[in-house]
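User: I'll paste a sequence; please echo it back and then give the predicted structure.

Assistant: Echoing your sequence first, then the prediction.
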Amino acid sequence: MLFPEAKSESQKQKILSSPVFQQALEKMERKRLFFLNNPIESLPFSKYRRYYLDGDRRSYEDCYFAHRGRLTYLTLAVLLHHRKEDIQELEDSIWAICEEFTWVLPAHTTDLGDRINTEVIDLFSAETGFALSEIYYLLKDELDPRINRRILDCLEERIFSMFLNHNYFWEDVPMNWAAVCAGSVGAAFIYAAPERFSLVHDRILKSMHRFLEGFGDDGVCVEGIDYWTYGFGFFTY
């Protein structure tokens, strides 16, 4: 698939023994121990609606991104060490993310008065789908079958069916959203629904080309260096 070396035990041993990665591995261990000893924070409606009440994004987004940070570090710990307690904690993290009402940030969707528009794929819902599909591909043999089923059900509902049945503005904009959203959606299909990738191939490729149109002949991105890194990173994926 996209990164077959992630399943290579020899590659993992190189990482564990290389001085290049020692600082990162020490940070991962600190994070792992913190997560094992601290419960997953919930994402309450009171924090979600703050954006619509007073424009505050941080209250909800801090918790939202903490979920994804937890997911990342625990996935790496499981990939490198395969400890039972890490697998259980990762399963809880996956479960919590799948239980989120939506993967879309409040600032990226619409409050329709008595409901929230969930027919959206934004930057971070796409990234979440990418992450979960990759975790499924890499670790499905170690995860509880019910967790695997939950991942696939959420991907179907929030990414695959959504993309197949809707068109999104970011498919045709020459900036980072085109690469991040389309790249993540494409990767999710490749990992978890490869038999349907041909259905979206042309749309994904069109967005990739549209993204590149946002660069001048000198390679400069008018969004700035951080967005250059962000967008081009996902273009590369």
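The chain has a mean pLDDT of 95. Residues 58-81 form the longest helix (24 residues).
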